[in-house]
Recover the amino acids of this structure.
């Protein structure tokens, strides 16, 4: 991953070059690269004057940050309570089976990253799977392959 | 109500005095009142959009043009109407006609028949799952009838990204009243007298919290809106923030004025992109109109408001962890006292309230504490929004007066359990809450009664479970969630949640021992007593409450190696009941692994080696010919 320092500096400047905006800065960096490259973390640490250990601490504490490159498409399976009682875990198993990865993992062809989420707050339409921000409602084990195929191309 | 040239001119102006705002609100209200055109409101929150509401909106726009009704009808895209089951839906005013589960092709039909000819279209109406009767209007639907939508009701009346829509329903009137009154202490008194308690879970009296923040020395002071709605199965805060962000901000501004705070944050979950977008837009509009910033409308009141996005950590719903997160640090809770009211954000006095709490404030100021405190029970005033989800016919957000019974919510509003299944339990209060069995159906709901029954109000998630839900599995689910979300600071919580999960997991796999139940209780008590924050202190509740009411299910798993609900995979296997199978191929087609053999009209057979126990066949079969049988588990001791 080539990390352009100017780009990072722009992000940091946008957030007032301030330590208190560390999370927002990392969020923007992740939006840019789809994960947090090591060079980017080091750059942010130096630029903000925050010890590297603290930046890495934040980057590893919060679930939405990833330290490894992610796939082209992010598949989020909701495992909130309502989705759980409606069969969410079965949907997850099917996604795992078809993609042959575990939650947090990325397929070897870098097409898909699988994530679970504790609740997306749209419990009425559960079980829910979100691919790149598109909500797929009332999923069934059978529908999983149809949905994934749409993104496979 | 926007889009005309005149509106554009009004929008560009900044309010320089209270009178200007007051005049503008009066004018907006009058304009709305005098506009007699029919209004089509399309419910378009996250759930609505997931179900295709935006396509319906586009279809309406196109059809309006084609039918020449563009100028004669107001099309309003609103937040969630609360009735998630019926998405995408529209309500047509002034009659309140409710059409549900719409498709783009219905748009033209509605314009031609309902708008032009005043005819109701029966096939688009909601049908009561119990009586089978169709309801034409919002008010005649069982789901809405018993509700008291004081806080969430405005969602159907405003486009959340149009500030003038909010003015037109009297928005910012309460702020105006407070700024005119010029007596912050009186505002706090009013909130105290209203009896409002925090809607985020703990139920702390809001007025007291405000007062504590006001009297704490330190400058600046902060107000924070906690929109880190992490409880799985609760989404009322998302719906409010998406659907009516100005109401929450108005509440925050009133609070800030009363407390003497000059800065505020809305801390929103990253998983709620629409809420983030709508609240951000609302804040931008307020700056543009001079309602945020320095010396607001020349009153000397100063208030800056920002959005802080969470990054996916449940524990950040805890106020000290939330503060750490806004400060850009790891979201670990710290010891209290000092409470945030004394030492909060950047060590300054800080008042944190939940979204729903803030949304109640403008109402209390407008209607008065006396009016407000007449609603509810002795110790719990006002209404509460619950998200009614799980095994229930009418899934959605329901706002009800405190003191209503669970039975009324589940059967009258929720329409009961689908498929004539038996009610087993309702889980309230999220991961910190508990499961209440049938015998508590007539319990009047308020903060105290739920706690007494072994659960909590929490943020208002209400997950209904039927006979097909395994309570040990539910306990396992919550423990898995909590062990994952424990921040790891306290050993008792970090290790406790992990061990509780492992023990319960073993039980669901048929590896449980009789002594496990005692061990569960012991670990639970330690976790509760020795943890710093609410997460750890309540982490054992899912186990304790299921043990309290459903001990027999634990015993069935441990002693008989049997899952009575047929959920725990290790303890069941799916088989075809030969007498009932008609050989229709439905199950075979549904099976994702090709484990089912058989041809048309032949009895099917499940290959147990290939079967992944996903249950698709059970769902697909219309002849009850698939059965979850007890697996002959080997005792592992």
């Amino acid at each position: 991953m080539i990390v352009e320092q100017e780009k990072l500096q722009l992000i940091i400047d946008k957030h007032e070059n301030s330590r208190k905006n560390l999370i927002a800065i990392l969020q923007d960096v992740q939006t840019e690269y789809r994960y947090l490259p090591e060079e980017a973390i080091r750059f942010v640490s130096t630029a903000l004057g925050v010890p590297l250990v603290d930046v890495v601490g934040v980057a590893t504490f919060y679930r939405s940050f990833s330290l490894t490159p992610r796939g082209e498409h992010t598949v989020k399976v909701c495992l909130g309570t309502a989705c759980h009682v409606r069969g969410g875990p079965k949907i997850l198993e099917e996604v795992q089976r078809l993609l042959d990865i575990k939650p947090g993992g990325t397929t070897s062809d870098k097409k898909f990253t699988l994530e679970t989420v504790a609740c997306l707050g749209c419990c009425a339409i559960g079980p829910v799977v979100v691919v790149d921000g598109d909500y797929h409602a009332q999923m069934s084990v059978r529908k999983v392959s149809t949905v994934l195929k749409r993104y496979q191309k | 109500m926007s889009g005309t040239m005149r509106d554009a001119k009004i929008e560009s102006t900044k309010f320089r005095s209270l009178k200007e705002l007051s005049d503008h609100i009066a004018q907006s209200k009058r304009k709305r009142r005098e506009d007699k055109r029919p209004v089509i409101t399309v419910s378009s929150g996250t759930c609505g959009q997931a179900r295709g509401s935006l396509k319906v909106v586009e279809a309406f726009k196109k059809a309006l043009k084609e039918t020449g009704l563009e100028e004669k009808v107001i099309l309003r895209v609103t937040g969630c109407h609360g009735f998630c089951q019926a998405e995408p839906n529209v309500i047509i005013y002034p009659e309140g006609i409710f059409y549900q589960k719409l498709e783009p092709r219905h748009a033209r039909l509605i314009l031609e028949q309902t708008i032009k000819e005043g005819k109701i279209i029966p096939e688009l109406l909601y049908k009561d799952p119990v009586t089978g009767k169709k309801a034409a209007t919002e008010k005649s639907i069982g789901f809405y009838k018993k509700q008291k939508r004081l806080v969430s009701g405005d969602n159907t009346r405003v486009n959340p990204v149009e500030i003038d829509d909010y003015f037109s329903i009297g928005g910012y009137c309460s702020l105006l009243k407070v700024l005119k009154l010029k007596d912050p202490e009186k505002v706090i008194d009013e909130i105290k007298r209203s009896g409002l308690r925090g809607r985020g879970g703990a139920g702390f009296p809001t007025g007291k919290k405000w007062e504590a923040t006001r009297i704490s020395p330190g400058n600046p002071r902060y107000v924070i809106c906690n929109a880190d709605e992490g409880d799985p199965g609760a989404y009322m805060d998302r719906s409010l923030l998406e659907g009516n962000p100005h109401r929450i901000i108005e509440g925050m501004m009133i609070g800030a004025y009363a407390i003497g705070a000059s800065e505020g944050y809305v801390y929103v979950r990253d998983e709620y992109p629409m809420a983030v977008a709508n609240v951000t837009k609302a804040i931008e509009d307020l700056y543009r109109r001079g309602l945020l910033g320095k010396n607001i409308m020349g009153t000397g009141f100063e208030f800056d408001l920002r959005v802080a996005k969470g990054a996916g950590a449940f524990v950040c719903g805890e106020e000290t962890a939330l503060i750490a997160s806004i400060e850009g640090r790891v979201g670990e809770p710290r010891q209290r006292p000092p409470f945030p009211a004394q030492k909060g954000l950047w060590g300054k006095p800080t008042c944190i309230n939940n979204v729903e709490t803030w949304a109640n404030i403008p109402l209390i100021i407008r209607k008065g504490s006396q009016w407000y405190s007449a609603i509810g029970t002795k110790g719990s005033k006002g209404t509460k929004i619950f998200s009614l989800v799980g095994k229930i016919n009418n899934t959605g957000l329901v706002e009800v007066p405190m003191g209503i019974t669970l039975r009324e919510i589940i059967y009258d509003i929720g329409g009961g359990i689908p498929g004539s299944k038996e009610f087993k339990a309702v889980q309230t209060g999220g991961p910190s809450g508990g499961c209440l069995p049938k015998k508590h159906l007539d319990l009047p709901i308020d903060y105290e009664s739920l706690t007494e029954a072994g659960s909590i109000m929490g943020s208002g998630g209400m997950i209904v479970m039927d006979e097909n839900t395994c309570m040990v599995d539910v306990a396992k689910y919550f423990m898995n969630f909590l062990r994952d979300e424990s921040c790891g600071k306290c050993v008792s919580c970090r290790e406790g949640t992990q061990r509780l999960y492992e023990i319960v997991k073993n039980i669901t796999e048929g590896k449980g021992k009789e002594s496990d139940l005692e061990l569960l209780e012991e670990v639970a008590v330690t976790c509760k007593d020795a943890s710093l924050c609410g997460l750890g202190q309540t982490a054992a509740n899912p186990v304790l409450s299921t043990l309290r009411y459903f001990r027999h299910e634990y015993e069935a798993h441990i002693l008989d190696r049997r899952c009575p609900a047929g959920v725990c995979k290790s303890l069941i296997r799916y088989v075809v009941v030969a007498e009932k199978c008609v050989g229709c191929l439905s199950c075979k087609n549904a099976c994702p692994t090709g484990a089912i053999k058989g041809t048309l009209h032949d009895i099917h057979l499940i290959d147990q080696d290939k079967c992944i126990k996903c249950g698709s066949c059970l769902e697909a079969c219309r002849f009850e010919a698939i059965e979850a049988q007890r697996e002959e588990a080997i005792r592992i001791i």
Residues 22-33 of chain A form the longest helix (12 residues). Chain A touches chain B through 49 residues (CB under 8 Å). The mean pLDDT of chain A is 92. The CA atoms of residues 21 and 85 of chain A lie 38 Å apart.
